[in-house]
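Dear support,

Our group has been running a series of protein-ligand predictions, and this particular one with 1,3-dihydroxyacetonephosphate is the one our PI (initials K.S.) wants archived with full inputs and outputs. We had some confusion internally about which version of the output was final, so please treat the block below as the authoritative record. The input we submitted was:
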Amino acid sequence: MRDARTPFVAGNWKMYKTVAETVKYVKEFRALVKDIDGVEIVVAPPFTALHAAAEAARNSNVGIAAQDLYWDREGPFTGEVSGAMIREAGAEYVIIGHSERRTLFGDTDATVNRRVAAAFAAGLCPIACVGETLDQRERQETFDVLDRQIRQGLDGLTSDQLAQLVVAYEPVWAIGTGRNATPEQAEEAHGHIRKRLRQWFGPDAAALCHVIYGGSVKPDNSASLLSQPNVDGALVGGASLDVRSFLEIVTKGRDAARRR
Ligand code: 13P
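Confirmed final output from the archive:
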């Protein structure tokens, strides 16, 4: 159980890295971060490498996340993986509703909601992703989109669950484009999300829920993003694939968050 908004930095590896590459990375990375405190550090390898990653990270300060889950515990669902299976493989977190899952694989706010509930039921910490497209931003619909994604995606959660959840704000136009949101744009969206969480789940839960930013986070912008009062961490794609660059994002981000 978390009792404060310690900075949270996660690497979403997407469909990159074999088992061998994962083990090599985690072994090297855990040694580099072993003395780094004041930040929760997570990596999310593909399903095939989850167990090996968890074994390689055992007794370290590196947590392991899956990139998705299915909501039933078991059954005739070819190709799907349940929360219980992920938990047993050694992961403690799961990314849910990433924009790539929404646009390429049919995820909706309703399925995100089922997955978030299933993650809690399996004892996993959900990292629930939200964010607007460029069109939506240009039409000034960002807050409406975020409201809908949060209200529907998190519907039915208790305040205690909300307090343990991580919301990842990932503007779709910033993902994999090299065009990150400015710290001011991120803070504006995060502040809005926090305001809604306060209204819908109460001040105590909203004060504990992490709202992290994702979209072209790199070593040279993690400090400015994490210096914002409502930016509690980062969900890093491409730049998390390299041990040194992810390490730099983690340390610079943590240091900036400490100063805020
Ligand atoms: P990039 O950091 O590669 O832009 O990806 C962001 C992302 O989608 C993290 O989930």
